[in-house]
Amino acid sequence: MARAIGPSMKINGTPVAGRLQDPTIELHDDKGSPALFNDNWRTSQEAEITQTGLAPSDDKESAIVKRLDPGNYTAIIRGADGAPGIGLIELYDLSAMDPSELGNLSVRGQVGTDDNVLIDGLILRGSTPKRVVFRALGPSIKVNGTMIPGALQDPALEVYDANGTLLRANDNWGDAPNVSEIQATGLAPSDGHESAVLLTLSAGNYTAVVRGVNRTTGIALGETYKLSN
Of 198, 224, 229, 206, which is closest to residue 103 (Cα–Cα)? Predict the structure, then answer.
């Protein structure tokens, strides 16, 4: 299930300033199939979405339920009226019995200052701790082989647990305390100014935050990889 949240976004019970008031969601596969689209979740799949227990709390928010084959998928959140704003896009694996599972999450967006940073989170389940790589990319971001304009040139990365405790921070992945382990994963960033954190995590909720060093701004990519061992 994929959700696009805006009007209901809150922090400690307070509505988020500048949030999207009418978000839409698109879901694309890597085969060029027609994208799935929703604006206002009750307009399609209402019964199926309600049955998941994850229906958005605001009717202007969006959701899609779809059984996906293994592959690469892209979910896009936009404002229905074209207006900018802060939005939350979420992915949920609804069936723990399926052999396939989410292995990589990438979020691209504009990184500002103070609270206007790039945030991605994940929920790990199961009784076995998992090795997870978090990355913050900027200088190396490309679209169809072309460097994107306005990329964040020096991203920094912070990883927190559900209690808000900072587990590890990194600026420049080559300075990480376990740099050799990061290299061994094959996921070391290609630019020395980019950041990476490798942790072994138990079941729980985790948050990765991407900021610009010295309050710089630009487009960044926050990524999370669950390793097989």
Answer: 224
Report pLDDT digits (tens) over 156-189: 999 999 999 999 999 999 999 999 999 999 999 9
End-to-end CA distance of the chain: give it in Å, rounded: 26
By three-state DSSP, how is residue 9 classified? coil
Predicted local confidence at residue 98, as pLDDT: 66
d(CA 72, CA 69): 9
Spatial neighbors of 54 by CB under 8 A, at least 6 apart, are: 1, 3, 63, 92
Q: Taking a C-beta distance cutoff of 8 angstroms, is the pair 110, 217 a contact? A: yes
Task: Encode 38-66: b = buried (16+ Cβ within 10 Å), e = exposed.
Answer: bbbbbebbeeebeeeeebbebebbbbbbe
Collapsing DSSP to helix, strand or coil, 179 comes out as helix
Burial 1-27 (b: 16+ CB within 10 A, else e): bbbbbbbebeeeeeebeebbbbbbbbb
User: What is the longest distance spanned by two Cα atoms in the chain?
Assistant: 50
